[in-house]
Amino acid sequence: MHDRPCRGIVAAMEQRLIIHIVDSSSRTRAELSRMAFELGHHAEVYADLAELAAHPPRDGLVLARDLPEAGGAGAVLEDLAEAGIWLPLVAFGENPTTGRVVEAVKAGALDYLMLPVEPAAFARTLERINGEARVQAEARRRMIEARGRIASLSNREREVLDCLAEGGSNKAIARALEISPRTVEIHRANMMGKLGAKHAAEAVRLRMEAQLEPPVMDRRMSA
Q1: CA 169, CA 122: separation in Å to the nearest integer?
Q2: Average per-residue pLDDT in the chain?
Q3: What is the pTM of this model?
Q4: Are residues 135 and 157 in the same domain?
């Protein structure tokens, strides 16, 4: 009978976000962090992505300015991935065009806020993406870890993995890469060992989680 308030406190704590605000404008950082604290969240502020990367966070989400001249939200997400930061991104900018917003979302941003940010709009955005942010953070964590493993492969091992992802047999891969099936077996075994994969399906899953560009395979694969 007396545990309902406690459940409410626990639920509120579970919904609390750590918001990492990245912007060169100290005024914007202060305003966004103030709104975050007033909504019951915690805010950390950074002048740029280098400062954020110096102490990579492992929880929450990133709010960063969308700068088209610097590559936009896509470049921010790439920089975060290179720093081993898998947190989801909410972009913001002044007077963004519809095209800029669409481009940011297509690049992987969870949402887009227009400056100056209205407190009500900020609250709605955080409430809407709270659960989604955690799901995307886990997906990005797996992506970055998978890319790290794949980066350890040699060029030939990577080609074997790409062919394997296309469903190629050892003989088909050998034709495509113009090497012997025995050599394919050697590269395949080395590739599986580096990836920590026990079977081919696990290696292909890692490649899918890495969200790499689809390979353009030799037509001899299907011959």
Answers
A1: 52
A2: 85
A3: 0.62
A4: no
